[in-house]
């Protein structure tokens, strides 16, 4: 599950799944419902901050749930279901009418890494936690929207190769040097505090959410195409 707290114009979404915040159908549905409701409540100055509870931001899809189905074919069907279910969550983040900040409190692996990088700003702790895309090591194909988002968010072909094709684990300070993360902080608490400070600064801009979302979508056309997002024509008052 996940929880949503409002502090003035800041919305704080906390992922509270199992001990690793693995993305099973229940958690994915909770995230989508929360983001959908949040989109409808957006006002000028709204900002979303997403973090996790415990040692993990999210350890990706719940492969244990998939394998518990009892057969390889059923497990593959369950995994496909989770992949397709998370796609509208990624689309909701890319199209959310407000700035978004991920405060990575611990490990962000596979779909958890994707979830974090769908945000506009990414903060990470330096003392614990890695970013990791393990699909190549697990023998799993990369979903098309994962690849599209990663290509547009990670600009260096060398870094993209190492992340997706070598399964490297990236700690906070290295992630900043590679341009994946904006800044690192000493602990989970200080990471969230930094996100709150930036959130307050962004909230003070009082940007129109719909315009902000359309500008974001224009930056990531390949991701929007795969996610089924189209640009809307917005006429602002001058």
Summarize the topology.
Elements: E1 2-7, E2 10-15, H1 25-40, E3 47-52, E4 56-58, H2 63-67, H3 72-95, E5 100-104, E6 107-109, H4 111-117, E7 121-125, E8 130-132, H5 135-138, H6 144-153, H7 157-165, E9 169-171, H8 172-177, E10 183-185, H9 188-203, H10 209-219, H11 221-227
Parallel strand pairs: 2-3, 3-5, 4-6, 5-7, 6-8, 7-10
Antiparallel strand pairs: 1-2, 8-9
Helix pairs in contact: 1-3, 6-11
Structural overview:
With about 240 residues, the chain is of the alpha/beta class. It has a single domain, classed as Alpha-Beta Complex (2-enoyl-CoA Hydratase, Chain A, domain 1). Helices cover about 50% and strands about 20% of the residues. It contains 11 helices and 10 strands. It has helices spanning about 25-40, 65, 70-95, 110-115, 135-140, 145-155, 155-165, 170-175, 190-205, 210-220, 220-225; strands at about 1-5, 10-15, 45-50, 55-60, 100-105, 105-110, 120-125, 130, 170, 185. The strands form 2 sheets. A 6-stranded mixed β-sheet has the order 1-2-3-5-7-10, with helices on both faces. A 4-stranded mixed β-sheet has the order 4-6-8-9. Strand 2 (about 10-15), helix 1 and strand 3 (about 45-50) form a beta-alpha-beta unit. Helix 1 (about 25-40) runs parallel beside helix 3 (about 70-95) and helix 6 (about 145-155) packs antiparallel against helix 11 (about 220-225). The model has no long low-confidence stretch (mean pLDDT about 95). Pathway: Lipid metabolism; fatty acid beta-oxidation.
């Amino acid at each position: 599950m996940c929880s949503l707290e409002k502090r003035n114009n800041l919305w704080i979404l906390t992922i509270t799944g199992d001990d690793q915040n693995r993305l099973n159908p229940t958690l994915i549905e909770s995230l989508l419902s929360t983001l959908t409701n949040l989109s409808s409540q957006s006002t000028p100055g709204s900002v979303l901050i997403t973090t996790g509870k415990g040692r993990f931001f999210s350890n990706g899809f719940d492969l244990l749930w998939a394998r518990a189905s009892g057969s390889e074919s059923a497990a593959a069907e369950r995994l496909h279901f989770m992949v397709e279910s998370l796609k509208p969550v990624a689309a909701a983040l890319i199209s959310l009418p407000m700035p978004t900040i991920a405060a990575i409190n611990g490990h962000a692996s596979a779909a958890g890494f994707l979830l974090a990088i769908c945000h506009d700003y990414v903060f990470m702790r330096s003392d614990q936690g890695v970013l990791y895309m393990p699909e190549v090591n697990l023998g799993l194909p990369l979903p098309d929207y994962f690849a599209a988002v990663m290509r547009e968010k990670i600009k260096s072909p060398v870094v993209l190769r190492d992340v997706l094709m070598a399964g490297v684990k990236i700690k906070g300070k290295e992630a900043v040097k590679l341009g994946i993360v904006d800044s690192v902080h000493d602990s989970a608490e200080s990471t969230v505090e930094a996100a709150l400070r930036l959130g307050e600064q962004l909230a003070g801009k009082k940007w129109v959410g719909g315009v902000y979302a359309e500008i974001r979508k224009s930056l990531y056309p390949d991701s929007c195409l795969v996610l089924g997002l189209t640009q809307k024509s917005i006429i602002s008052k001058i």
